[in-house]
């Protein structure tokens, strides 16, 4: 019965979204506040209906109702509760439902909280959001319905892929989808502004919090995914430039560019057309990501919910939606105002350069991701574009960006003083160079590129701190004055400092990890050992372990640095009888910022004696790879709580008070 | 301002913008072209590799089905197996832990290079996370050879190939 309620609510949400689109568009056309109210009501109702549908599907997963095709294909009664809940969005159908839930949720949020938006802009935004809802809900209802029943329900389900049964991955899709779909609001705002023909500072101020929220969620989602790949796949890596990873990374890059260009539009009224273009591009890349991940047109190691036939439908949705957005842009953008002028050396110029670099970097990632498809269509040859391509193209562009990044926030608007900025940054440059030389001279083996990367990371971190010191007049004014300024700093400023600092922290971690990681693999009998640089590992014993839905072999090892025991890793190799799959459970010992990473391989026989292949990695500063983006996301969240982004709310109160 | 700059403010701004964009675009385009000519790797099935003869030591991808009964696991961690398509086979050497979903009869993609003796030295062997999966290039190549039975169908038996007329 709950399943039928869910199926009904899903269809209801489709109808309500249609009503939302039509009523809101009508409200703008007729300038009727009654119609606008009805449209907003429909938006909230569509969200509530989808909440009911989502709850119904979750219920079916929790109680293991195998008469539902989706549950039977992706769940198992012996699975722990968390993974039965997470199974709701572990499949193609379920994840589309989550996508729609987030989409209508955003529409409802605009309808409910955007009270101070101009009536026309708001109606058009809600209408566009409704139209997007119609497209994706229609796809979900007709081509990917999660509530389809089976005529003959199986006794047991086929289980969720055991690799997905992991806490990080349970929360990875919701965060990622919040990010992807958060861009839809930005898209709707852009479409509404183009129809209205007005892109001004106020518009940029409304768009920024949405971009910031979506970007922060995307940061968390991507980081969780990378962290999952790091410890669940057991390859010792965290980023493979795989198409699916790129699919989530491109919207992130575009959103980062949009965050910066929206600042220029908000503060100086310039770059209006470009900001709108990025706003359209961000959600288009999100949809491209959804298409690439689900259609299986590109070979990926991470694609799970793949279905090629539906891929075509998603491609059509992508083409129509993005095409309509960009066509509207081409038609209306020339009428947008040009905005303020600025000198070649100014904060605006720095932000423009940031945008050029981010856009070029996105283009190289896009080309590298799609090139196999283009090549195959043109010549019929199957090729793959791997990490070497991206290291060659993406990394230098980002290096240039990192080089100029610390100077940007120190430059003044309109006309900056480059000489003064460089004077303030010499200490950061000195520290960065010292770090780079130290890394080059002290760490063996010597690696020039990695040492340069370390210098770059230090430059970003110290540069962010210098900027903070400038704002608070640290070391120049009295301590009390600095403290007063520090506590009085707007949250947006904190957010920026943290985001830039986080990027530096990430660069440091990534350079250390890729440059100086150690790797060793050896076949060990019980009592055997292997060495890894100055560390050694001893395999003490192998135990059989029974999990809730798996059987495992657990290796009991001890790790030594010299003669001192530093930790006791216990990696597992798990067998899941429900799907007949084996996975490795990596053991990670954290030592300061470093990770000792141990993987237990399969059992083999050497002269009648059982032996195990044990692989171990020493990943220096690997923790920073995940802490850096976490700092960036925290920066985004802090900036989001800035009072200035809610300045319009204050104006509303003022209006109410005078009324 | 120098005399050769345009008089109009707008035109000057446009010029600066182009001056900023051009080097970045040139850098990006140059690196991309270099990268695409240098650091892509071709995908072959054993039959395609036999026809195309990739240079020894050039990084390529070899895909196909793992021939049942061909997997030999040595106690020192080395693994040998035969990757097959409908027409040809190639012996693959790999040192290390095979992916958790590596099975006989399963589609895999190995990244590595051919050795002088014509056998393949793999740096990395990929099977998918999902047991219902067949790597796309493998699926496509097998389809073209008329060997495709759909996802999840039992893999073709290559043991009987010799006895075919």
Task: Name the features.
A: 659 residues; alpha+beta; 4 domains; 6-stranded antiparallel sheet; 11 strands; 64% helix; disordered C terminus; B: 165 residues; OB fold (Dihydrolipoamide Acetyltransferase, E2P); 5-stranded mixed β-barrel
Architecture overview:
By secondary structure, chain A is α+β, with helices and mostly antiparallel strands. Chain A has 4 domains: 1-150; 192-407, no CATH class; 417-515 and 625-630; 518-619. Chain A is 64% helix and 12% strand. In chain A, the strands form 2 sheets. In chain A, strands 3, 4, 5, 6, 7 and 8 form a 6-stranded antiparallel sheet that branches. A 4-stranded antiparallel sheet of chain A has the order 2-11-10-9. In chain A, strand 10 and strand 11 (609-619) form a beta hairpin. Residues 647-659 of chain A have low confidence and may be disordered. Chain B is an alpha+beta fold. Chain B has 2 domains: 1-39; 43-155, OB fold (Dihydrolipoamide Acetyltransferase, E2P). Chain B is built from 3 helices and 7 strands, in the order H-E-H-E-E-E-E-E-E-H. Chain B has helices spanning 9-38, 46-52, 136-144, and strands at 40-44, 60-66, 72-73, 78-84, 89-95, 107-114, 120-126. Chain B has a 5-stranded mixed beta barrel. In chain B, strand 1, helix 2 and strand 2 (60-66) form a beta-alpha-beta unit. Chain B starts with 8 loop residues before the first helix and ends in a 21-residue tail after the last helix. At the A-B interface, helix 12, strand 1, helix 13, strand 2 and strand 8 of A face helix 1, strand 1 and helix 3 of B.
- Name the CATH homologous superfamily of the largest domain in chain B: Nucleic acid-binding proteins
The biggest chain-chain interface is: A-B, 60 and 47 residues
Could you give a short account of the major beta sheet of chain B?
5 strands, mixed, barrel
Give the mean pLDDT of chain A: 88
Q: First CA to last CA of chain A: what distance? A: 50 Å
Round the Cα radius of gyration of chain A to an integer and report it: 27 Å
CATH architecture of the largest domain in chain B: Beta Barrel
Query: H/E series of chain A, N to C?
Result: HHHHHHHHHHHHEHHHHHEEEEEEEEEEHH
- What is the oligomeric state here? heterodimer
Count of the domains of chain A:
4
Strand content of chain A: 5-15%
Distance between the termini of chain B: 85 Å
Alpha-beta classification of chain B: alpha+beta
Strand content of chain B: 25-35%
Q: Which stretches of chain A of 5+ consecutive residues score pLDDT under 50?
A: 647-659
Overall body shape of chain A: globular
For the secondary structure, the number of strands of chain A is 11
Mean pLDDT of chain B: 75
Query: Which structural class do the helices and strands of chain A define?
Result: alpha+beta
Total strand count of chain B, please? 7
Helix residue percentage of chain A? 55-70%
């Amino acid at each position: 019965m709950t399943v039928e309620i869910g199926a009904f609510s899903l269809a209801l949400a489709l109808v309500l979204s249609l009503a939302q689109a039509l009523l809101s568009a009508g409200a703008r056309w007729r300038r009727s506040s009654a119609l606008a109210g009805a449209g907003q009501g429909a938006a909230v109702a569509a969200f509530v209906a989808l909440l009911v549908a989502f709850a119904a599907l979750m219920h079916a997963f929790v109680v293991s109702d195998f008469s539902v095709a989706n549950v039977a294909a992706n769940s198992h009664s012996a699975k722990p509760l968390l993974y039965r809940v997470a199974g709701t969005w572990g499949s193609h159908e379920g994840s589309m439902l989550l996508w729609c839930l987030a989409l209508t949720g955003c529409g409802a949020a605009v309808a409910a909280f955007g009270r101070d938006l101009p009536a026309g802009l708001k109606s058009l935004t809600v209408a566009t959001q409704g139209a997007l809802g119609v497209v994706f809900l229609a796809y979900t209802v007709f081509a990917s319905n999660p509530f389809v029943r089976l005529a003959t329900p199986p006794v047991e389900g086929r289980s969720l892929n055991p690799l997905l049964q992991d806490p990080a991955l349970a929360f990875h899709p919701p965060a990622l989808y919040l990010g992807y779909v958060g861009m839809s609001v930005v898209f709707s705002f852009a479409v509404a502004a183009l129809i209205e023909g007005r892109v001004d500072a106020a518009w940029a101020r409304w768009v920024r919090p949405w971009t910031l929220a979506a970007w922060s969620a995307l940061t968390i989602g991507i980081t969780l995914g990378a962290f999952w790949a790091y410890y669940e796949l057991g390859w010792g890596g965290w980023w493979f430039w795989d198409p699916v990873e790129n699919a989530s990374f491109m919207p992130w890059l575009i959103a980062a560019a949009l965050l910066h260009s929206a600042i220029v539009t908000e503060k100086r009224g310039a770059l209006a057309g470009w900001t709108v273009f990025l706003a359209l591009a961000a959600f288009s890349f999100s949809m491209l990501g959804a298409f690439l991940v689900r259609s299986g047109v590109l070979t990926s190691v991470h694609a799970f919910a793949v279905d090629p036939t539906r891929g075509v439908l998603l491609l059509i949705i992508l083409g129509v939606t993005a095409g309509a957005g960009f066509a509207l842009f081409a038609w209306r953008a020339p009428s947008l105002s040009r905005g303020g002028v600025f000198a070649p050396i100014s904060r605006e110029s720095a932000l423009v350069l940031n945008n050029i670099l981010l856009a070029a970097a996105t283009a190289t990632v896009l080309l590298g991701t799609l090139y196999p498809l283009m090549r195959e269509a043109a010549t019929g040859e199957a090729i793959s574009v791997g990490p070497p391509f991206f290291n060659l193209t993406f990394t230098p562009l980002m290096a240039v960006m990192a080089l100029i990044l610390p100077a940007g926030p120190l430059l003044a608007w309109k006309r900056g003083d480059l000489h003064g900025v460089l004077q303030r940054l010499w200490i950061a440059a000195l520290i960065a160079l010292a770090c780079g030389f130290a890394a080059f001279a002290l760490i063996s083996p010597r690696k020039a590129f990695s040492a340069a990367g370390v210098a770059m990371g230090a430059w970003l971190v110290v540069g962010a701190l210098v900027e903070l010191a400038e704002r608070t007049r640290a070391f120049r004014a009295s301590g009390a004055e600095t403290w007063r300024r520090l506590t009085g700093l707007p949250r947006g400023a904190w957010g920026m400092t943290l985001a830039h600092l986080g990027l530096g922290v990430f660069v440091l971690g990534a350079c250390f990890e890729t440059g100086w990681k150690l790797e060793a693999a050896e076949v060990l009998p019980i009592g055997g050992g292997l060495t890894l640089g100055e560390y050694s590992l001893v395999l003490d014993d192998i135990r059989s372990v029974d999990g809730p839905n798996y059987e495992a072999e657990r290796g009991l090892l001890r790790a030594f640095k010299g003669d001192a025991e530093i930790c006791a890793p216990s990696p597992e190799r798990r067998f899941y009888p429900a799907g007949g799959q084996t996975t490795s459970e990596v053991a990670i010992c954290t030592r300061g910022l470093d990770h000792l990473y141990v993987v237990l391989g399969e059992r083999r026989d050497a002269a009648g004696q059982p032996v195990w292949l044990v692989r171990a990695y020493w990943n220096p500063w690997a923790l920073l790879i995940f802490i850096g983006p976490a700092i960036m996301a925290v920066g985004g969240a802090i900036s989001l709580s800035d009072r200035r982004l809610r300045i319009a709310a204050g104006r509303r109160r003022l209006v109410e008070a005078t009324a | 301002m120098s005399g050769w700059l345009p008089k109009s403010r707008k035109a000057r701004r446009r010029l600066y913008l182009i001056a900023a964009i051009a080097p970045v675009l040139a850098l990006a385009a140059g690196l991309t072209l270099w990268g695409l000519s240098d650091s892509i790797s071709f995908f072959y099935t054993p039959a395609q590799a036999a026809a195309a003869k990739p240079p020894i030591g050039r990084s390529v991808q070899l895909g196909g089905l793992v021939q049942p009964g061909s997997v030999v696991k040595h106690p020192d961690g080395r693994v040998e197996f035969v990757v097959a398509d409908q027409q040809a086979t190639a012996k693959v050497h790999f040192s290390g832990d095979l992916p958790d979903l590596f099975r006989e009869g399963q589609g895999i993609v190995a990244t590595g290079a051919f050795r002088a003796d014509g056998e393949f030295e793999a740096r990395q062997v990929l099977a998918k996370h999902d047991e219902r999966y067949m790597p796309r290039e493998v699926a496509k190549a097998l389809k073209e050879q008329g060997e495709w039975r759909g996802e999840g169908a039992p893999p073709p038996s290559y043991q009987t190939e010799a006895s075919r007329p």
